[in-house]
Amino acid sequence: MQIQNPSAIRINKFLADSGVCSRREADKLIQQKKVKINGRTAVLGDKVSAEDKITANGKPVIPQTTKIYIALHKPFGAITTTDKKSDNTVMDYVDLKERIFPVGRLDVETSGLLLLTNDGEIVNRLLKSKHRIEKEYLVTVDKPVTAETLNRLAGGLKIDNQKTLPAKVEKISPRQFKITIIQGLNRQIRRMCEALGLKVKILKRVKFAGIELGELSRGKWRPLTPREISSLKTHGR
Length: 237
Known about the structure:
By secondary structure, the chain is an alpha+beta fold. It is built from six helices and 17 strands. The strands form four sheets. Strands 7, 8, 9, 10, 13, 14, 15, 16 and 17 form a nine-stranded mixed sheet that branches. It has a four-stranded antiparallel sheet with strand order 3-2-5-6, with no helix packed on it. Strands 1-4 form a two-stranded antiparallel ribbon. Strand 11 (about 160) and strand 12 form a beta hairpin. Helix 1 (about 10-15) crosses helix 2. The two termini are about 35 Å apart.
């Protein structure tokens, strides 16, 4: 009978903690047979310890002990990916040597707040929809917004046979409003507006998990403050 190392952790958690990718992405790499443990192809559920030699995509994985948390003002047109083969990715705007990855994604036509980190635990927790993390957006549409439209957005709309959860909505100007959602359906806000005959002209995320975009300039990034990091770690618990 083989004795398990009490300090061993699952391979997907090890990859996430090492800043390679999120746990979800780690599972994909493992399923694609791109992860090896001491020369053996890893499988889902494998456990590893500090003594093991791990490679991902043929490259050695070195554990990172320093956790990094940053906020980026993602520009319109930038792609949320860590794929170095792609052009104009969010990683092109971050001049760090350490490996970090985005917490979720913003589509190419959406700008605003994007968090990046090498803390796989936080990424895993924040991306689980059951935790209902608040995401606030500033939306500009092509037509004046009526009180009825705001009420329908707040109450929830049916898109793809699924009703969106209640949202917080605040009118800013005739064609602009803020909306706070707790879901992450694909292109959710755009599709909600389309269901009401509105076309989104500008979509900008201004707040995520309690962290605010503030006055951060487009294409720039900043480290989170100790208070923001502490707050982030409590979200979803």
